[in-house]
Amino acid sequence: MSDEPAKELRVTMGSIERRGTWSVPEHLDVRVLWGNCELDLRDAKLSPGATTIDVQITMGNFELIVPPGMNVTLDVQTVGGNVAESEHLKDSIAGEADAPRIRVTGKVKLGNCEVITLHRGETRADGARRVRHERHHRKHHHRHERHARRHQRWHELHAEREMWMRSRDPKHRWQPWWLMSRMRRRMFIWFTLAFGAGIAVGLHLWADRKWWHIVLALMLLLMISGGIAWRLTRPLLIAIRAAQDIGDGKLDTRLDPDRYGGEVRLLATALNDMTTKIQQQLADQRQLLAAVSHELRTPLGHMRVLIETARDTNDPKALGELEKEVLMLDDLVGRLLAQSRLEFGNLDRRELDLGELVSDAATSAGVAPEAIEAIGDVRAPIDPTLVRRAVANLLDNARVHGKGAVAVRIERRANQVAIEVDDAGPGVPPDRKADAFRAFVPSSAGGLGLGLALVSRIAVAHDGGAWISERPGGGARVGFAVSVGA
Fold first, then answer.
1. How far is Cα 136 from Cα 348, in angstroms, rounded to an integer?
2. Residue 181: its pLDDT value, please?
3. Where does residue 288 rank: exposed (0-12), middle (13-18), buried (19+ CB within 10 A)?
C-alpha cells in the first residue's frame, strides 16, 4: 500500500477495503458500481481539519467504520437506496468537540451506505454484542427509573391520605379523602358540569341512544373530570406537605423543581431557597450561642477572681479591673441586643441630627473634636440606639485594628448620610474585605466577629450600606450610610 493518500477509490463489480494504518486525504471520492467498499478509520491518519468523503453508489454497498467519539455528519441522498442511521451512527455524531470531523456526502442509487462505530480491535460481532448489552442496560435502567417514580407516586399518595385524615373536618367526614381538598372538589364539580353539558347536548341530539350510553357517558365524565382535577392539584398538595414537613423541623426536605413546570416550579424553588436560608440562620444562631458562651466564660472568670481579691484586700485596682470587665460584658450584651432587634425588625426611627449623635459617640471614645467633621444637612430618620451602636463599632474597630481613629466624617451624599472613620493602621488586605462584614468570622484580635457585621446590618435596615476603602496616605476608611427618606 502506498503512503501517498489516494484521493479517489473506484469499485466495479468487486470489493475494496482500507484498514489499519492508512492516510486519508481531506477530500476522498468513492465510486461503487455493483461492488463493496469498506473504509476503517479507527487507526487511519486523518487530516487535522474536516475530512469529506463523497460517495456515489449504484447497486453497491459502502461501509464506514469509525472509533467512538468521532464527529460524523451524514448528508447522503438516496434514490431507491438505504442510508443506515443506526445506534452506532448516533453515538458517532455525539462525538467529542476536539475529535476529527468526518462529513459523508453524495448519492446512493439502489444501494446501501452505513456508518458503524467500533472500538479498536473490536469485531462486528463484538460490537453487536456490546450494542445489545448497552441497549439491555438502558432498558433495565429505564425500567428501574419507572419503578422508582411509581413507588414515589404511591408514597406521595399515601402521605396525602395521611395528611387529610389527620386534618379531617368533622363536618366533611362523609367525603372520601381524595375530595377533601377544596380546590380539587371545586375543579371536579366545574369540570363535571362543563363536560356534562356537552355530553347532554350530544345525547339529546342522538336519536338511537340507549340507556347504557348514558351510564357510560357519565362514567367517562366522572373519570375525566376527576383525573384533570387530580392532576392539576397534586403538585400544589405536594408543596403543602413539604411546607408542613419544614414546619415540623425536617429542614432536609427538598422538592425537585425539574418534576414540575410553570408556577409550581417557581414555588418549589422558593421553598428550597427558604429552607436553605432557615438552615443557615439556625447554624448562625448555634454558632452565636457557642461563641457567646465562650466570650462570657472569660470575663466571668476574671470577675470571680477580682471579687475575691477585692473582698480580701479591698484593693482599688482590683475594683477598677472589675469595672472594666463589667463594661466589656455590657458592650457584649449591647451588641447581642442590637442583633436581636435587627432580627425582629424593631426600629424606633426618629428625625435626628447625625452630626451631634456621631460627635458625642466619637468624643466619648477619645477622638479629638477637631478630627470630627460634619458636611451639609445630615439629619435623617434613624434609630438612635442602633446607629450609635454602629458608630461605636466603627470606632472600636479603628482602635483594635487601626491604632485608633484619626478622622471622623459625617457627610450628606444625595439622598443618604454617610459616616466614615479613618484609622492609621496597615489597612485591610483585599482578600479580607469580603469577610469583614460577615458575622462570626474570627479576626486577628479574637472576638465574635460581630462588630462590622452589625454595622452592615444596621445600615441595610436604614436602607443604606457599608464599605471599606483605602485611606489616602495609608490606613483604612470604614463607613456606612443611612437613607434620609423621601
1. 70
2. 60
3. middle
- Taking alpha carbons only, the member of 413, 403, 369, 412 closest to residue 471 is 403
Query: Mean pLDDT by 10-residue block, N- to C-terminus, for the chain (486 residues)?
Result: 69 86 87 88 83 88 86 84 59 52 88 86 80 83 80 67 60 54 68 75 71 76 73 74 79 80 78 86 72 66 72 71 72 68 71 91 88 90 87 87 87 92 83 70 54 84 88 87 82
pTM tops 0.85, yes or no? no
Nearest-angstrom CA–CA distance, 480 and 471: 15
9 CB-near residues (< 8 Å, 6+ apart): 16, 18, 28, 29, 30, 31, 37
In the numeric block, which cell numbers belong to residue 461?
435596615
What are φ and ψ of residue 112, in 5° steps?
A: -135, 140
H/E run at residue 405: strand 405-413
Instruction: Walk me through the domains of the chain, giving residue ranges and CATH numbers.
Output: 8-122 (no CATH), 347-483 (3.30.565.10)
CA-nearest of 368, 475, 484, 369 to 418 is 484
What burial letters (b/e) apply to 105-130, b meaning 16+ CB within 10 Å? ebbbeebbbbbbbbeeebeeeebeee
The grid coordinates of residue 252 equal: 432536609
The β-bridge partners of 476 are 470
Close Cβ partners of 415 (under 8 Å, ≥ 6 residues apart)? 483, 484, 485
